[in-house]
Design brief:
Layout (H helix, E strand, L loop, with lengths): L12 H7 L8 E5 L8 H12 L6 E5 L7 H12 L6 E5 L4 H4 L5 E4 L8 H7 L5 E4 L4 H4 L7 E3 L4 H12 L2 H18 L2 H38 L1
Parallel strand pairs: 1-2, 1-4, 2-3, 4-5, 5-6
């Protein structure tokens, strides 16, 4: 599996929230990734719309952009406005330092319909940010539901809203998940572990290739020796 390096200090939470255009207080949900249908951002917007009824001061930060000239981003902005979230959602666009910014979130959402692995999940967890992700693809490999994160059904705004609300409403639980998530990444998904595992694969393949070449050499030698005889 992929791994992430131990992060450098990213600055204090108040400054990060200011960078994100967030008030100093109040619940903040973050999303980091490309804006496209498979990432489930529309589901996230509908989930936040449901959540806002219980937590009017909630904010959603979308870090990332689309790949089609802004058409999908404009679609999402129109959807947010239609859901009454114009003042709730902050579109930050693409940021090279997206991983650093996630420390300004209270929870990170990974609402993908399908997620091959999810480095953004690891980057949040190693920084002590609890994650609510959909039980699809690689997220099920990374997160153990209720132990070091929360998994919900993909494409279900109500389930996503409930998962987010459970963390935002219970700071003690959020803290436990944050600590467990950081421990999970350090023990199973560190960059050092990835490098070591990849090196073992290459060494094993090299030994296999050497073994095959050795046997081929002797097979050719034996054949030539037989022909000479």
């Amino acid at each position: 599996p992929n791994g992430v390096a131990e992060p450098e200090p990213d600055g204090d939470r108040t400054r990060l929230r200011a960078e994100l255009g967030l008030p100093c207080t109040g619940p903040a949900i973050g999303f980091v990734g490309r804006l496209c249908p498979v990432k489930g951002v529309e589901t996230l917007l509908h989930a936040v719309s449901r959540l806002r009824g219980r937590q009017p001061d909630v904010r959603l930060v979308l870090v990332g952009d689309d790949a089609d000239g802004g058409a999908y981003r404009r679609h999402l902005q129109k959807l947010a406005q239609g859901l009454g979230l114009a003042d709730t959602v902050r579109f930050c666009g693409y940021r090279e330092d997206a991983a650093r910014l996630c420390r300004g979130f209270d929870v990170q959402a990974v609402p993908s319909v399908a997620e091959p692995f999810g480095l953004v999940t690891l980057e949040a967890m190693v920084r002590g940010v609890p994650v609510v992700a959909t039980a699809s693809g690689g997220s099920r490999e990374i997160i153990r539901d209720g132990v070091d994160g929360v998994l919900v059904a993909p494409g279900d705004p109500s389930a996503l809203a409930a998962g987010l609300a459970a963390i935002l409403a219970d700071t003690e639980r959020a803290g436990r998940l944050a600590v467990a998530g950081r421990r999970r990444v350090r023990s199973c998904f560190s960059l050092d572990r990835q490098v070591a595992a990849t090196e073992r694969v290459y060494r094993r393949l090299a030994l296999q290739a050497e073994h095959v070449a050795h046997h081929r050499h002797h097979a050719v030698y034996d054949q030539l020796d037989g022909d000479d005889g």
